[in-house]
Design goal:
The complex is a heterodimer of chains A (599) and B (243). With 599 residues, chain A is α/β, with parallel strands linked by helices. Among the domains of chain A are: 238-378, Flavocytochrome C3, Chain A, domain 1; 450-566, Up-down Bundle (Methane Monooxygenase Hydroxylase, Chain G, domain 1). Chain A has helices at residues 18-29, 67-77, 84-103, 136-149, 215-223, 254-257, 287-298, 314-326, 345-351, 353-363, 418-440, 449-464, 471-485, 492-508, 522-546, 592-595, and strands at 4-14, 34-37, 54-55, 118-119, 129-130, 154-156, 159-167, 170-178, 184-194, 227-228, 233-240, 261-263, 336-339, 372-381, 384-386, 399-401, 406-407, 489-490, 555-556, 569-576, 579-586. In chain A, β20 (569-576) and β21 form a beta hairpin. Chain A is globular and about 70 Å long. In chain A, 60% of the residues are buried. The model of chain A has no long low-confidence stretch (mean pLDDT 96). Chain B is α+β, with helices and mostly antiparallel strands. Chain B is built from 10 helices and 7 strands. Chain B has 2 domains: 3-101, Beta-grasp domain (Ubiquitin-like (UB roll), Roll); 104-232, Alpha-helical ferredoxin (Fumarate Reductase Iron-sulfur Protein, Chain B, domain 2, Orthogonal Bundle), CATH 1.10.1060.10. In chain B, strands 2-1-5-3-4 form a 5-stranded mixed beta sheet. A two-stranded antiparallel ribbon of chain B has the order 6-7. Chain B starts with a strand and ends with a helix. Chain B has helices at residues 31-41, 104-111, 128-137, 145-149, 151-154, 165-175, 185-189, 202-206, 213-229, 232-242, and strands at 3-11, 16-24, 61-64, 67-70, 85-88, 95-97, 100-101. The chains are: A alpha/beta (599), B alpha+beta (243).
Amino acid sequence: MDNYKVIEHDVIVIGAGGAGLRAAIEASAQGVSTGLVCKSLLGKAHTVMAEGGIAAALANVDSEDGWQTHFCDTMKGGKMLNNYRMAELHAKEAPMRVKELEKWGAVFDRTKDGKILQRAFGGHKYKRLCHVGDRTGLELIRTLQDKGVHQGINVYMECTITKLFKDGDTISGAFGYYRNSGEYVLFKAKAIVLATGGVGKSFSVTSNSWEYTGDGHALAYEAGCDLIDMEFLQFHPTGMVWPPGVKGILVTEGVRGEGGILRNNKNERFMFKYLPESTRHEFAETEAEASQWLEATLNLTKSTARRPPELSTRDNVARAIYTEVKEGRGSPHGGVFLDISYQDSNRIKQKLPSMYHQFKELADVDITAGPMEVGPTAHYIMGGVRVDADTAQSKVKGLFACGEVSGGMHGANRLGGNSLSDLIVFGARAGLHAANYAKELKGKPSINGKEIEAEITDLERPLNAQSGQNPYDLHKELNHIMSTYVGIFREENDLVTGLDKLVELNKKLDNLKVVNNRTYNPGWHMCRDLKNMLICSMAITKSALSRKESRGAHSRLDYTETDKELSKVNSAVFKQDGEMKLEHTPTLSMPEELAKLFN
Amino acid sequence: MAKVTLKVYRGDKEKGEFKTYEVPIEDGMVILDAIHYIQANIDNDIAVRWNCKAAKCGSCSAEVNGKPSLMCKTRLDRFAKDEVITVQPLKTFPLIKDLVTDVSWNYEVNKHITPLTSKDEGEWVIYQEDIERVQEFRKCIECFLCQDVCHVLRDHDKHANFAGPRFLVRTAGLEMHPKDTASRTKYLKEEGGIGYCNITKCCTEVCPEEIHITDNAIIPLKERVVDDFYDPIAKFLKGLFKK
C-alpha cells in the first residue's frame, strides 16, 4: 500500500510552539536537514496565548536577582519534586536565551535606562519577567517563526502526527495526515523531537486550544517512554468565567503582577488568609504593606515592603479562589473579583492591552472602570515525558522532548513565566542534541510497512463504520469525567470512579462514526485526538490515585498533608504488555553546592 | 430558547452552497461558538480554523455578512434580532473546504523580507519611546484580514506583484527597529509592489489589533521609497559623488 507521501529529514520536530521552533532552529543551525511539523498554521500554536512574560534572572529591575535565586524559587514552587538539573540549567541559561531573542528581533518593554523591563509574578522573589505588555507569547513565537523561516527549515503545516516508529529500540520515523487534504505522510528521520504542548482539552474549563490533546504524551507513551508527574495538572487561578463561550480563557497573572487585587463578594481581600506557613514571611502582612510595595513598583523605586498575597504560587491561589466560591463568597457568575481599576486607566491599557480588549469585547466589562470576574481554569501539565536534563533525550533512543510535553522541570507546580523560558532553554538543548545524535547515528533505522498499513486501517475505522457514536459526544463525556472526578481537589472515591468511567469510555473508542471523507474533516480529526486525550487522562488519574498526599497542584481531601516519603519519588506511567503500569521512582538527589542554596 | 439563523458556506474548490443552520443562543455568544455548535451537534465535518478563541492567534478569519472578521470576537448580539447571518470563507485566498482557505501564499511572501540585521553585538540599550511604533506593528496576529480586504489582492489578484498590508507592516517593523541597519526600500519598490497601494485604508478598518496600517506603516514606507529612488536632490548628489 503506497498511498502515502514519504519525506525524509535528519531531524523531525513535532510541534511548532516556542519549544518546537527553538529546537528546529538549533537543529538546522547544526547543519542537519530539519523538518518542522505542526497541527495548525505556523505561528498559531498555543504559545501565542502566553501573556505575562518570560522568566530570566537578568537583574535589570531588582539587581539582587541571580540564577541561584531563580533556581531556588523554581524548586520551592515545584515543592522540590523537580528534576533539579533541569531547574538549574533553566535558571542559568534563560538570560542568555532571552538576550538571543532580542537579537533575533523580539522587542521587549524597556526600563528607563533602556534595558529589558521585568515585572513581578507569583512565586518569583524578584521582578523577573521580561515582557511585551501582555502579549509576550506572540512576540516569542513571531520572533522564532521569522528566524526559522530565514534559516531554511522545512515547515509542514496543518499536519497531525498519529504514530511514531521504532527500529528495535531506536526511533525511525513518524506517520500522520495533512489536515487539508487528508493525505497520509510518512516522515523518515534519524531523530525526532516532541514539542507538542499539553493536555488541557481533556477538561471542560480550560485555557487551552483545540490542539492541546496530549498528542506528544500519547505518542511517547506508545513508543515506550515514561510519563512522570502526570498527577500535577496546573489550574491557573484566573480564567474568565463569563460569558459561557469564553469560560476558561486565560486572564494573565500579569494583572496581579501589576497590582491586581483579589476580593470575594464580601469585599474581603481573601488571599491574606490562604498563605501557606512556609512562605508567609515573604508576603505583605497588611493591605498597607501591599500598597507600599505596589507604589514602589509603579514608580520603579526600592522599598522594603513585601509582595502582595495575590502573588502567591498558582496552586495556592487557585485553591483559594475555588474555596471562596464553594463556600458561597463568589461573584455572580461563580468566580471572584480581580480588580486593577483603581489604577490610572492609561497605564492599565498600556500594560495590559489585550486584557482590556478581551474583557471589553467578549464580556462587556471595562477593566479600567470595574473588577473582572475570574476563576480557576485547567492550564498546564507539569508532568510529561521523562528526559535526560542535559540532552532532553527520552528513554527511547533518538526521541527527544521539550517544553510542556516533557516532565521534570517544574515538579509539582510551575511558576508563571517559567514556561516561556523552559521552551527556549530546552528547545535549544533538544535541537542541539537531536542534531548531534542524528550526525553520529550510523545507517538508517527502518520502518515496518505492516505497521503503516495497520495505522491507516485504524485511522479509517470511523470513516468506514456503518454506525457509531459522535466523537464530540465522547469528548463532552471525557470533559465531564475529568472535571468532576479529577479536578482541583481530589479524593480516593472520586478518582476510582473517574478511572472506571475512563476505562468504560475507552471501550467506546472502537465504535466511532464520522461522515464525509478525509478532506479537512474535524470530526475525523477528533477521533484520534480522543485516543490521545484518554491515554493522558488515565495517566493523570492513575498518578493522582498513587500519590496519597497533597503537594503543589495535587490536592487530596483525604490526604491533606505532604508526606515525607513521597517527597522522594516521582510517579512514572509506562506501557508494559499492552497495559498502563505505574511505579514510583526515586527523585534525583541534588549535589551539595546546590542543596546548600536552600539553607 | 432563542435561536439564531446562520447561512454558512459549505463546499470545496469544485462546488458549494450556503447551508442554513439554526443554533440556540447563549449569553455573549460569538460566531465561532455557533460554528462549534454546528460541528459538535449537526455537521461534524464542517471545516473551520481556530485556536485561542480570544483574538490572539488570528486563525478564525472569515467574512461575516460580507465583512472580514475574526469569528471569535464577532458577537451575535451585535446583529439585529432575527437577522440571518452569513458566514463565508475569505475571498482573496483559494478555498480548501467550507470556511478554510489556503493562506500559504502569505508564508511565501514572508520568506522574501530581509530579517532584522544589526552589527551591534553588545548588550542593547533601547529606549521605550523609540520602540512604541515598532511594538504597534508587532501586535499583528497574522489573521490576514487586511490581505483579504485589500482590493489589490482581492479584486485584482496581484499576489505575484504585491506583498499586501500584512507584509508592509512587517517590513515597517524591521525598517523602524532602532538597531536595524538593512534597507528594504528596493524590495518594497520592486517585489513588494508598495506602489500598488493607493491608501484607501480598508486594511486599517478591518485590523482587529487596531494597527494604523496605512498611516503608521505604509505611508512612511512609501516616503522612504520616494527618498531613496525618486528624490531629485538626492539623485543629483548621488550623481556628483559618482564623478
